[in-house]
Design a protein that fits this description.
Number of strands: 17
Helix content: 40-55%
Structural class: alpha+beta
Order of helices and strands: HHEEEEEEHEEEHEEEEEEHHEEHHHH
Largest sheet: 5 strands, antiparallel
Length: 470
């Protein structure tokens, strides 16, 4: 079959141009489908943007939806020997602290040394038993004679996770000792070590809890001890240097002993709540910017029948409009049973023109200082059904779920896009068939016209020859 570019050469007709025009006319049927595909693809992308924007706001909403923010306190210590953190509703005030002893973890070290870390110590298979002093179940570790070197024993103890860690100490002059340290501080976490099956290994690392006993193969190089301190002149002893049960909602972290009495000061701290509220307001306003971008409308010349290409992907979309309306409703709801019933009372108002929030930082700080519980009741509520951020959290989770309205909208658009693709392919195949038929017909016409032209030329030549011979 002749190529498109060669059509009409024999006949002298502009068949190639005619075929191009017919092809363009046929393919014009694809234009409306392509426009719909572009529109729905943009919409699908718009839903992705909407979801991401809501997730960003959800993060800020979750951060604000915490009751502890509104009862937060800050701590200050007069000494670097201790610090403190607070949780819940720690009571503001001053405490006198005196630390006389830090908690220590027991460390046992072999008295005898080994010339290397690879030579076996035991001549028979044996068992090492670690017995903690806190009443926990003893842990037994099997040691084969072949694996009874310092390295083998160390690795076996560490693998057993028996509440201790083992290490090898190079003491110089090519001599090595085995060291075993409790993972937890305090006298109750000290251990004794017994060895059965091989007397050499028992002599090397046995420890029965009495450092002065000459039969011990190990010595207590660091003695297990509890922390000792006084809080408001009350004696406290604890196995750890992190003490969470001495003062309600306050955890003490001991770093060193003190010189005389020192002071721990607990004060109300509104800064955490202020920061969370500001981040929430900023995130909400960013979300409003996203809404505005997705629903942007640009007017076009009347009568063109076209929509401006710069319009938002979700202009007029019911899903976005539903979310936007419900968020606005939740912001404006009054909450009963609290001193503050609306966000405006704590310094958060809405710009009626843009829908964005405006924050009066001074008013917020004032309400947080005077009545933090009432602010919490308004913002967080009971954390289940009441409170602005709690209600928003419930709705955000629902909107963003795999069965929420955003996913449903995306599924609907995806289905439409699949249908449009099938429609496009069907129309395109039909056009290809029609164009092929045109081309076949034009080729036949070209062949016929070429033959007729050749016949005409021959007859003309014959007539001319006959006339010249007379």
């Amino acid at each position: 079959m002749a190529s498109i570019s060669s059509l009409g050469i024999g006949s002298g007709l502009k068949l190639a141009d005619i075929l191009d025009s017919l092809t363009a006319a046929e393919k014009a049927q694809l234009t409306p489908i392509s426009k719909q595909q572009t529109s729905y693809t943009s919409k699908l992308s718009g839903y992705g943007t909407l979801k991401s924007s809501l997730e960003a706001f959800q993060t800020a909403n979750t951060a604000l939806n915490k009751a502890d923010l509104f009862t937060a306190t800050s701590t200050a210590s007069s000494s670097t020997a201790f610090s403190a953190t607070t949780t819940g509703s720690a009571i503001a005030g001053k405490y006198t602290i005196s630390v006389s002893q830090l908690a220590q973890a027991q460390t046992l070290t072999t008295k005898n040394t080994q010339a290397d870390t690879k030579t076996a110590i035991a001549s028979a298979d044996s068992k090492i038993t670690l017995t903690p002093g806190n009443g926990k179940k003893p842990v037994s570790i099997d040691i084969s004679a072949a694996n009874s070197s310092l390295t083998g024993i160390r690795d076996a103890i560490n693998k057993a996770e028996a509440g201790v860690t083992a290490s090898i100490i190079n003491v110089g002059n090519g001599q090595y000792r085995l060291s075993v340290t409790s993972t937890e501080t305090g006298t109750d976490n000290a251990v004794s070590i017994s060895v059965s099956g091989d007397s050499a290994l028992q002599t090397f690392m046995g420890y029965n809890g009495t450092s002065t006993d000459g039969s011990n193969g190990m010595t207590e190089s660091v003695t297990a001890q509890n922390a000792k301190l006084k809080v408001n002149n009350v004696d406290i002893e604890n196995s750890s240097n992190t003490i969470s049960d001495a003062l309600e909602d306050i955890t003490l972290n001991l770093n060193d002993v003190t010189t005389g009495n020192q002071t721990l000061t607990i004060t109300k701290d509104t800064s955490k709540a202020e920061t969370a509220v500001k981040a929430w307001v900023d995130a909400y306003n960013t979300l409003q910017d996203s809404f505005a971008s997705l629903t942007k409308y640009t007017a076009v010349d009347t009568g063109t029948g076209a929509q401006d290409a710069n319009n938002g992907a979700l202009l007029g979309d019911s899903t976005l409009r539903t979310i936007q309306t419900q968020l606005k409703t939740m912001l404006g709801n009054s909450v009963g049973g609290t001193a503050y019933k609306t966000l405006s009372q704590i310094g958060i108002t809405t710009d009626p023109g843009t829908g964005k929030l405006e924050l009066d930082s001074k008013q917020l700080k004032k309400t947080l200082t005077e009545n933090p519980t009432a602010v919490k009741d308004l913002v967080v509520g009971d954390g289940k059904k009441t409170g602005i951020t709690t209600t928003m959290a419930t709705n955000l989770t629902d909107w963003l779920s795999s069965k929420g309205i955003i996913q449903a909208a995306k599924d609907g658009v995806s289905k439409t896009l699949n249908n449009l693709t099938e429609q496009y392919n069907a129309v395109s195949a039909r056009i290809d068939a029609t164009v092929a038929q045109y081309k076949a017909q034009f080729t036949q016409l070209d062949v016929l016209m070429t033959s007729l032209n050749n016949t005409s030329s021959y007859l003309t030549q014959q007539f001319e020859n006959t006339s010249s011979n007379k």
